[in-house]
Structures are given as C-alpha cells and as structure tokens.
Design goal:
Length: 290
Amino acid sequence: MLITLENNFLQVTVDDKGAELKSLVSKSTGIDYMWSGDPAYWGKTSPILFPIVGALKDNTFIYKGKSYTLPRHGFARDMYFEVKQEEPETAVFCLESSDTSRENYPFDFELEVRYKLAEDQLAVTYQVVNKGKKDMLFSLGAHPAFRVPMVENTSYEDHYLHFNQPESALRWPIVEGGLISETTVKFFEEDTRLKLTRELFYEDALVFKNLRSNTISIQSDRHAHGLDFQFEGFPFFGIWAAPNADFVCLEPWCGIADSVSHNQKLEKKEGIQKLPAQKTWGRSWRVHIY
C-alpha cells in the first residue's frame, strides 16, 4: 500500500512494505529524484537497514552463547509496517518485534519511521524503542537511491558528489561475503568533489568512517538541478550503485558490516548501538531538492 504526502513543492510516496520511500517528485519540474526500482538492476529504492547494517560473518551472530542468523542488512526492509499516522505532509510507520522476529533477533523493540515535508525538503526520522528488560543491541542505516542522470540528454558522468567539507577519509573495501577488509585504501585527498563514474562501484560500495561532511550534494555542471543530502550522528557512510544502473545511493549508517576477523559476538560488533531497557534512540536525515 502506497501512502502519498504532498505540499506545494513536493509529492512523495512511501510503501508500507519496509516503510520504503518510493518517489520524491518536484511539483515545479516534474523530476522524480528517486531511482525507479528497476529489478533488472536493483529492485529497491530506499530500504531501511535494521537491526544490522551490511553482512554478518557467515550471516550469523552470537548473543549470550546462542547463534542467530540474519540476512545482509537485516529484516526490516522486507516487513510490512503499520501506518500509525497519515496526514497531508506527515506519515509515521511502525514495526514491532514479534515471535517471528525474536527467532532471529532476540530483542523486544519498536521501530518508528517518520516522513515529514517542509517546503522543498523531506525529513526522515528513525526512532528505536527498547521494549524489553535488557540492553538492546542493534544497528540502523539508511539506503536511499537517487536518480542519476536527473535530466534528459545528460549522462551519469555529467554528475558529481559535492562534500561540504574537504575529505581525507580512507576507504574500507568490501571483500568476499560482504565483509569489511582490514586493509584500507587511500581515496580522498582533501577533496570536496567526487565525479560519478560507472567504474566507481564495480567493486561494491565505497565505505568510509567518520567523514567530516554532514551534507553531500548531487550536482552537475550541465544543469541547475540537484539535491542536498544532510545527515547528523552517523559515524559510517556508504556510497553505492548497482553496476551500470542509473542511480547513486547515499547511505548514512550507525553500524557497519562485520570485519573479516570478527568473532561474531554481537556485543563486540563494530558500531553496535546499545540501548538500555525502555529507552529511546533516534537519528534523522533530510533531502532538499532543486
């Protein structure tokens, strides 16, 4: 079921399956800034990564001496959320733990996702509530795929990413099994611009830790359209596209895939969030289109 949000500037649709953002349309230009979700390349548009980000070693984690299995990026993206609030400019989706979820993830939780329009901006907020009586261990990430090229008669290579701070972060390669290498690669050299090319993503995502920037923009020197993607409090960031597909994903993460040498114990997992019983955790990102 698709939920539509609308104001004078934007029309946005969100699917209750995965609480997934499906379209982000400028009413003045008709441009949809989201990837179409063509399954020939990648059938998703903006999956929510929860309760893990990336891959587990052997798809398995160990908690209190017991092994549990989760697929890459967890299960929230394939679950149906309850629509808790639906207004012209705001929608709130909720996923709660169940007997089924506890078989693979032994925590009681509520995951709330709020979409809110404000003129030509969309804000997306995640709230996690620990409904249990023990510390909850989890990761959460966003994975929105934005259309590139944005305008007809332009190419993928006509576009670039602009970082609002000079970057020198190292790249952490993804290796076999979706795990994070322990050997870094020099990538940025105090750069603020990254030219988009197909070849950038032939070896999977670009993964970084502790970027200086809190805004990454998609822009082009051939037209005036673009977007600013703003994020705070996410220590990891992924940039990805399926091979030769017309999109780029900007992915702020609180969590990261297991390293090749990880011992699979959930409490020792890099980037794991620890939320005390009955407490609430939140993060958000915003996108401004033009």
